[in-house]
Design goal:
The structure is a single chain. With 679 residues, the protein is α+β, with helices and mostly antiparallel strands. The protein folds into three domains: 183 residues, Lipoxygenase-1 (Sandwich), CATH 2.60.60; 126 residues; 215 residues, P-loop containing nucleotide triphosphate hydrolases (Rossmann fold, 3-Layer(aba) Sandwich). It has eleven helices and 21 strands. Strands 1, 2, 3, 4, 5, 6, 7, 8, 9, 10, 11 and 12 form a twelve-stranded mixed sheet that branches. Strands 16-17-18-15-19 form a five-stranded parallel sheet, with helices on both faces.
Length: 679
């Protein structure tokens, strides 16, 4: 439950890995100072700012922006740090506003990694101040709390830093303002909205979906921290139905226990003129990104023609990701508006009919019939108007999808996209990965890409249990198991394909060998770490090896000695694909699997289950956390993704290779050629 703080109020923090989101309406610089038990800031090395954006456990954006997302890992804070002050300052010398009194009240939210708001604070009462201490995170008796501060300084950042005991406050404030000015000089305003009535926020989101429980596409930010009824958020930020919370983590490129990368968390405004498509990762860019294309002039009275990559972002890849998020958001809103209008029309008609029936005089003659016809006519008119608006929105979204789909990079594209025929093993990991498509009953045949951020923050569960078909019958269980394995192989191949050579290793457990036919493309191409493990002995060997790996990396990271791993240690991301669970698993193996699902993602060990939950009913509630901790996918279309933001049930369709296509074999062949010889 979100707590809305008043000035001076505090609230305990139940999580140590957090995001602090700032919305100020106009560009502000985000700064943070670290203090000891007395609150003293010992020097400039205890200040995180756009010029020095990262310290252990904390990272801020490199430039001024109207919206910020600060990454915080309290466990990674040095032992001497007991206070973290979050500061906001208006840039000086750039022609912007000079005091917070001329702006809307800044809003600050402390959230979990799944987007769930823990505490919020609206900073009111500011006038001539140009810098403000927004929040304070402080350690008390081994636990962390957040306090709403709201202390403003008319003398700006220099006065604020002086008040915090920094002798070099004026020099540091000047350096911060110079770094902010340089950041603003590198960027120009983002392209304007394409229609006057369709202003979309194109923002990056974190993400990770939830098993049958939490999974609207595009991460927690999309629905402002939308959650499932059980606390989870999903691929783009909503929730899945029955089974549990999600756990998005830091953006791509963050090491376990390290703050998020600012290029991934804060979209940077980009030029609005045409330029070549560049799919390089924003985290590795040192120069300004190529400008996004501009839309051709629209005909008078017609909506602007859509253009691929016209969202905000530091690279074309990020702009396309944000554009896909915008399409999801627009579709959700349009469908919600239509459903709301229909509900209103139904309620109004029922009320009018009740009034007619409650008056005895209206039952005589044709008076009642006329009233009923009038109510029904009004109802039809309202529904028709709502349908017309929805059709208009769907037509615009369909036109956008037509230009966006062909422009998507391989990681975001369907298997039938021609981009896969020009596939080359990448040099960098992308921001996100496409796991399928989403649509709503009102939006046939419009499909929205379902993207999840990389590296994966939770495991995947391809459900091979029985599911009802569209006619209400149940699909054949053997056929579903086959389809589930085909889906898992397609997801695995895609994960391999979007990682650089040698940076993603796949292990397979198939105790009874029941998935041998579907696994053949992976086995025959030689892209697996070894043959699929069979029998109880094979299960024990693979699980033991991966469990030891997780223990070793965790000890190294927690001890601050990540560079002390044994020589030749495989630092690649690891994926374990498990078929036919729990066949071949004893109690020890089940415990190890749960451990890998819980602890593995933080150190680069991921899990993909191909299983029917009913097969494991004998374990009772013991395995409930396992299922809740995985992102549930289905091998056939299924409307199991619940979106608590607007209350939709999204239909998920898996990303499968078209029948008869050889694209999977071609991609795997290239991966095998690029695979390091010692693997």
């Amino acid at each position: 439950m979100t707590v809305e703080l008043a000035r001076g109020q505090n609230h305990p923090l139940s999580q140590v890995r957090l995001e602090i989101r700032v919305s100020a309406g106009k560009p502000v610089a985000a700064v943070a100072t670290l203090g000891d038990e007395t609150g003293k800031v010992h020097g400039v090395e205890w200040v995180v700012h756009p010029g020095v954006p990262a310290l252990p456990g904390l990272e801020v954006s490199r430039q001024a922006a109207a919206d910020h997302r600060l990454a915080v890992d309290l466990d990674a804070m040095p032992a001497a740090v007991h206070r973290v002050n979050i500061l906001l300052a208006l840039p000086t010398g750039v022609g912007g506003p000079t005091s917070f009194g001329s702006l809307a009240s800044p809003f600050v939210a402390v959230t979990g990694l799944d987007g769930t708001e823990i505490a919020t604070y609206t900073i009111t009462g500011l006038d001539a101040e140009s810098a403000v201490v927004a929040l304070e995170l402080y350690r008390r008796q081994g636990a962390w709390k957040v306090r709403a501060v709201g202390q403003g300084y008319a003398g700006g950042l220099a006065e604020l830093l002086t008040d915090q005991g920094l002798s070099q406050a004026h020099q540091l404030a000047a350096g911060i303002n110079e770094a902010v000015a340089q950041g603003l000089a590198r960027s120009v305003p983002a392209p304007p909205p394409r229609t006057a009535d369709a202003d979309r926020s194109r923002q990056a989101a974190a993400s990770a979906l939830g098993p049958d429980q939490s999974g609207s596409p595009y991460g927690a930010q999309g629905a402002q921290g939308a959650q499932s009824t059980q606390g989870g958020t999903g691929p783009y930020g909503a929730a899945q139905n029955p089974q549990g919370p999600s756990g998005p983590g830091y953006p791509p490129g963050s090491a376990p226990g390290a703050p998020a990368d600012p290029a991934a968390t804060q979209p940077t405004p980009t030029p609005s003129t045409g330029g070549p498509i560049d799919y390089s990762h924003p985290r590795r860019r040192n120069a300004a990104p190529p400008p996004p294309p501009t839309a051709p002039p629209a005909q008078p009275g017609q909506p602007a023609r859509p253009v691929a990559g016209d969202a905000t972002g530091w690279s074309m890849e990020e702009r396309l990701y944000n554009q896909a998020w915008g399409m999801f958001e627009d579709l959700a809103r349009s469908a919600a508006a239509f459903r709301s209008a229909v509900d209103f029309a139904d309620t109004r008609m029922e009320k009018e009919l009740d009034q007619v029936l409650s008056d005895p005089r209206s039952r005589i003659g044709g008076q009642g019939d006329a009233a009923r016809e009038a109510a029904q006519a009004k109802h039809g008119q309202l529904v028709d108007q709502a349908r017309e608006a929805l059709d208009r929105d769907l037509a615009q979204l369909a036109a956008e999808a037509e230009v966006v789909e062909p422009a998507l990079p391989a990681a975001f594209a369907r298997w039938d996209n021609p981009v896969w025929h020009a596939y080359r093993v990448p040099m960098e990991m992308p921001m996100a990965l496409r796991l399928g498509d989403l649509h709503l009953p009102e939006s046939e045949p419009l499909r929205v890409p379902m993207l999840v951020r990389l590296p994966l923050e939770r495991g995947l569960w391809v459900d091979s249990g029985r599911m009802s078909a569209s006619d209400g019958s149940f699909a054949d269980s053997h056929e579903l198991r086959r389809l589930a394995m085909e889906s898992a192989v397609a997801h695995t191949a895609r994960l391999l394909a979007v990682h650089p050579a040698g940076e993603f290793t796949v292990h397979v457990i198939d105790p009874a060998g029941s998935g041998a036919r579907e696994l053949a493309p992976l086995v025959q191409s030689g892209v697996l770490a070894g043959p699929p493990a069979v029998g109880a002995a094979g299960v024990a060997t693979v699980l033991g090896r991966l469990t030891e790996r997780v223990d070793l990396v965790q000890m190294a990271v927690r001890g601050g000695a990540a560079d002390s791993l044994p020589p030749g240690f495989d630092t690649s991301q690891q994926l374990l694909v498990v078929n036919d669970f729990p066949h071949g698993f004893d109690d020890r193996a089940v415990t190890q699997l749960r451990y890998l699902a819980d602890e593995g993602p933080s150190v680069g060990v991921h899990l993909m289950m191909v299983a029917d939950r009913e097969d494991a009913d004998g374990y009772g509630p013991l395995l409930d956390p396992l299922w809740r901790g995985l992102l549930r996918l289905t091998p056939v279309p299924d409307d199991h993704l619940a979106d608590p933001w607007v209350g939709h049930a999204w239909t998920y369709e898996p990303a499968l290779v078209p029948p008869g296509s050889r694209v999977l074999q071609q991609v795997l062949a290239q991966l095998a050629l690029a695979r390091p010889k010692n693997m």
